[in-house]
Description:
- By secondary structure, the chain is an all-alpha fold.
- It has one domain: lambda repressor-like DNA-binding domains (434 Repressor (Amino-terminal Domain), Orthogonal Bundle).
- It has 7 helices and no strands.
- The relative contact order is 0.12.
Amino acid sequence: MTLIKSNIALRLKGIRKSQKLSQAEVADRTSFSRSTVANIENCTQRPSVEFLIEFAGIVNMSLDHVIGNGEEQKNSSNMIGSDLSFDELLAIIQYSESIEAVRAAAKVLATRYQDADRAYKKLNRQVKNFMTSVKSGK
């Protein structure tokens, strides 16, 4: 998996998710199968020029924006959503050429860590309260 290939795959997936489209919906609106869309997003297949053109058309974006050329690449952090998996966020941090995308992915991970830490502390307090009430016979 090359850096550029990963970056394009992450951009395509991020754009698709930001448009609230499933892989099946992208396939339905293009001449490509859902498995082709999945393979492209998973970096097991390179996107063809035809795919990129059709994809850009259904998401109503320029081809330059879809592939991350020019100034629009700076906006890639807008595509980093909290719905991405832990592995997807790590891949962005490892392979993205955009510092803004890396910062956005790191922010999502930090928020998740903070949420998990708060949930753990709350659960720990509840267990302590329960144990105290059991000991006191309430």
